[in-house]
Amino acid sequence: MAAGARVVLLGPPGAGKGTQAKLLQDRFAARQISTGDILRKAVAEQTPLGKQASEYIRRGELVPDRLIIDLVADRLKEKDCETGFVLDGFPRTIAQAQSLEEILKKTGLALDCVLSVQVPHKLIVERLSGRRTCKGCGALYHVVFDPPKAAGICNGCGGELFQRDDDREETISNRLRVYDNQTAPLASYYRERGLLREIDGVGEVEAIGKRVVRALG
Question: Is 31 in contact with 142 (CB distance < 8 Å)?
């Protein structure tokens, strides 16, 4: 992966995209860009776009595509993106992918590749439904992969561990259905453009990272 490379990471929730994006950022100085982080920052700083987004959030509504696209466009103009970027969580739909192409085209740029992290849904449900969060300090555990020393008790502060609503199996299954319906078709979209590279996302983080680096050439 050369300096200045522009990459999109695709994959279902729980596939480990965020972890791999951070590793790429550390290794190649390509800025990780998460739409969730952009949105939270804009709302916290009460930028004009952040103020618009906070109104939707306050009403419990989804932030519209157009607003998310504008937030991403603004972020990509910042100087730290000149050394490349890894988009994590955007685009989610073909319409967003087309908008991203237009954003980049205006500056004479284009994507270098799209990495699709492949993980079976059964494993994703196991990964996410086993997570537990400390009510006291917010520390994260996993009942199988990283259990606390005492069941239900945080090793650090002794707080009670609980399962967040979005980590419940029925919620995870619904998120995966949404992904399959809306985001998975992006793989075909980018495959047709010769940009897609599929990565086996099962195994240790380091091993997956090596596969990612190999795919980037």
Answer: no
| C-alpha–C-alpha distance, residues 121 and 106, integer Å | 37
Peptide bond into 91 cis (omega under 30): yes
Model confidence, pTM: 0.81
Quick check: is 17 catalytic? yes
Active-site residue, selected from the candidate residues 6, 127, 131, 132: 131
> Do 201 and 208 touch, CB atoms closer than 8 A?
yes
Catalytic: which of 41, 175, 191, 197? 175
75 belongs to the catalytic site? no
- Which two three-digit tokens encode residue 6? 């522009």
Q: What is the pLDDT of residues 39-82, one digit of tens each?
A: 888 888 999 998 998 888 778 777 888 898 999 999 998 899 98
Cβ count within 10 A of residue 140: 12
